[in-house]
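Re: that chain you flagged

S.,

Sorry for the slow reply, it's been a week of failed gels. I finally had a moment to sit down with the sequence you sent. For the record, here it is as I used it:
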Amino acid sequence: PSAASPTDAASPAAVAAVGSGVRASPRARQRARELGVSLEGVVGTGPDGVIQVGDVEGAGPASGERLAGVRRAMARRMADAHSRVVRATVTGEVDISAWSGTGSPVARLARAITAAAVAAPRLNAWFDDRAETLILHDRVHLGIAMETSDGLFVPVLKDVAGHTLEDLASELARLEDEVRRRTVAPDTLRGQTISLSNFGAVAGLHAEMVVVPPQVAIVGAGRTFERTVLAEGAPATARILPLSISFDHRVITGVEACTFLAALTADLEGDQ
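Prediction finished late last night. Pasting the structure tokens below so you have them in one place:
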């Protein structure tokens, strides 16, 4: 712990009320921000109970995890995306009861995204915010978010419309294996024109997702669930897939995002 200096706690000008009745020196407040320590739970040992730097350091964690590698790159990229993108999200649901259940759900979602990109092509695009130019793509190169113990990888399914569902499922399996083994080529992690997060494989129904520039949209698939519906006047069980689309509202309107969602939903209602 650091020793207190005369300006750390003794001067009335150096003390400020923080939160509800909490008194701490400016240096102590700065150190608390650095360590992520809430001053509400720190006992001050200075005059009149003023919190000092040593009090904060004594309350802080013994050690921390310094980000490196994939997690550091992810942190920087997410911070950049947050500072640049004006994000908005629309959500919906689709009845996938007609699916056979034997194919790859992610491959099926990939194919539906290509259909939605035809209906609303501005979501399959890059935005150059320096030149204020939207670049539309005639092919869908789909980034697939894959979680690992080291952080998030997003390999790219190239030219989705040019492949059958079986081809897409095979390519997905190959990419998952390469990500798991850390043998994925750098070129495979670049060039996505739109992305997909299948977060529902773990939990969750809808989400506001991060749109990573220069992309302008990302599709999210939530956890499927069953719902009782009326079918020809009789109760029936439907299998429901929640959907989310987060988009950059600087260049995509709400109507365009909803048009994309409607086309995505229509395609997914068919069988696999």
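What I noticed first: Confidence is low (pLDDT under 50) at residues 1-13.

Talk soon,
D.
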